[in-house]
Amino acid sequence: MSFTKKRKGALEIPIEDEADLLKITPLGAGQEVGRSCVVIEYKNKTVMLDCGLHPAFDGLSSLPFLDEIDPTSVDVLLVTHFHVDHAAAVPYFLEKTNFSGRTFMTHPTKAIFRWLVTDYVRVSNHGNISEQDALYNEQDMIKAYSKIEVIDYHQQIEVNGIKFTAYNAGHVLGAAMFVIEIAGIRILYTGDYSREEDRHLKAAENPKENIDVMITESTYGVQSFEPRLEKEARFTKLVRDVVLRGGRCLMPVFALGRTQELLLILEEFWENHKELESIPIYFASTLAKRCMLVYQTYIHMMNSNIQKMFATSNPFIFKHISNLNSIAHFDDVGACVMIASPGMLQNGVSRDFFDRWAPDRRNGLVLTGYSVEGTLARTILSEPTEVLTQQGVKISRRMSINYISFSAHVDFTQNSQFIDEISPSNLILVHGEQSAMNRLKAALVSKFTEKEISMNIYTPKNTESVKMYFRGEKMARLMGEMAVEQVPQNKIIEGVLVQRNYKYNLYSSIDLKEFEGISEVPIKQTIKIPYHNTISLLLFHLQSMYGHIETSLKSGEILGDAVKINVFESVDLKYSKNNNEVNINWFSSTLNDMVADSVMALLLNIDCSPVSVKITSQPCGHSHNSAGCHGDNHTVKPNIVTEDESTNFKTENNTVVKDTSVDTELKLDNSSLKSEINLENDQDLKFLESKNVVAYPSYNYSRVSTELLRGELCELLLEHFNIVELSEDKQNINIYHNHGELVSVVINLETLDIINCDDDDTRKRILTLLARFCRTLKPMLG
């Protein structure tokens, strides 16, 4: 590290900073599927990603572990899509906690979110759940909805230094993945995503940004899906077989998302098979009927196939599919296809039909999406012979059970390929059951090891934090007059560093107002210290410590009740005899603060100073009978050079002034106490060394920061020499130049000894400066 005088120039300089901790904690979806909620904490910023409910639980137990965080610390809540397990806890978080940050969704997500959550409130609050046990009501949902802001794909928004951008995630209409940037660190959260274009949605896009941390789903672990056309053919055959044997084909689905894909497939299949025209297809969801308007509004966000179809007719107006508004008005006669929500068979219309149709072997159940553990949809996959109805009645299960995945999640092939494209340094797996997640991790480790790709992979549980440290060089831009000229590398320049949203700018003080609107305001420090001794004793100690001092006393003036004193043109003292106190005033700076600290230390230790005791304890030959002397016979006589025994005080210019406070005389014309010691001859030099002014190994060096001592000494030397450098081990100060000639000087910082000096005049100058430096620091060093 080098020190030099302030110069203009350079465009950027590095700023040293401590290692920063990034903490990522899943409050839901950690080694499970459901209640997705991930919290990112970095640089005192907090981002929450998704806030959903667990479909296998009710009430508070279905919430993410929100008690693990302080909601007031969350700056931004970003919701990827409208599904219950990603968004249904948003009204609770916004209205039932003290969260005061901002919430963002895409336009379609917000539009569908309202209807989906309203339906959730209606279904979940129906039955034995009391209003008191309900997480929130419709009014809470309406209030929360008004607080939600929208974001477009590829739009970057910045909130309190947090930048985030939404990208298309496939999966469902309006689903987004987010790239979050905080202090230069980029994090990609995929949410649920699909890399396969289907009948109406585009595939998820690659953000094509340098990603430091990727948080991705692991729903299907190492499973790989069959090709889409083969899957559609198998699906339509299953449905056809059930209805042609006279049965009812039940498909439990989410009201929105993959359901629209299934409707498009069945509509086309029925259109191409005239023998099926007489068999009705029902869609039992009033919610989906309302939300279909949203699908028609956002046709431009779907793939080119749908947009071409929409140019001639609306593809979401179906000929062979009708809406079932009420189960009470359903004529349950003959074969049919029933698409009903919810998808997990926990309650609602789909559960009512399952309880009714399960005992008939002609009927069939086709599960088309992922089934969460703990739900009836997961249980029924094992094909039990008996099941319990919602009323707790045990019934036989004879209907056929089939599973075919139309889930818009990535399989292993798509997921691993996308991770490879992003190539993050750190990968965090969420939204997957423990076994599937661990198998995926093992497969990814094997794959990337073969490719010699270094990647840290984490599989945290709920509330288990992943901690990562990011150490990077921060750069500051030189602005204004400081950017006019080039600054040599490794040279330190002085200026005011301004940080705003993790960007650093360095200004000279005169440019602050123009560029940042900041005015430079000096800070005046004031402190009062009780003082019960004499002015002459105060002046004696100040001059003993600092050499030459300025006072308000004029030639021939008598010491009065108040005296003003200036030390090093930095600190002003005002002694008031009436108040028995000393006021210390100074404008704050590193150097002025150091001088003020030493002055205060001196004042507080005058009473116990050996010199003070010696001055005030000499016996005298006359008596004082005043009350202040308590009748004792004594006098005060300083143990220093005096002119005579009168009560006179002699100033530097040998002018005698009257001191009425004590019977003593002090002569301040002592050459050993001046700030500029005359080192032109060897006698004065030997005097300085005999006083041990330069070397002070016995001082308590630990009282003052070593860095402060080095910095201040270098600053002092810079006032007198052109180039001053600190050695790499920070143990020596090297001075190279003086008066245009090269002079080699080395100073040991441990002892302040001059190790090497080629020029006697330079050595004497440095000794003078070291003496001044030691006198200033002596009160702080013990």
From TrEMBL:
Domain Metallo-beta-lactamase: from-to ranges: 34-247
One of the protein's GO biological processes: mRNA 3'-end processing by stem-loop binding and cleavage
This protein's UniProt keywords: Hydrolase, mRNA processing, Nuclease, Nucleus
Domain called Beta-Casp: residue spans: 259-380
Location of the Pre-mRNA 3'-end-processing endonuclease polyadenylation factor C-term domain: 489-780
Entry keyword Nucleus: yes
Keyword Transport tagged: no
UniProt subcellular location: Nucleus
GO cellular component: mRNA cleavage and polyadenylation specificity factor complex
Gene Ontology terms for molecular function: 5'-3' RNA exonuclease activity; RNA binding; RNA endonuclease activity
Pfam families: Beta-Casp (PF10996), CPSF73-100_C (PF11718), Lactamase_B_6 (PF16661), RMMBL (PF07521)
Family, per entry: Belongs to the metallo-beta-lactamase superfamily. RNA-metabolizing metallo-beta-lactamase-like family. CPSF2/YSH1 subfamily.
Protein name: Endoribonuclease YSH1
Organism field: Smittium simulii
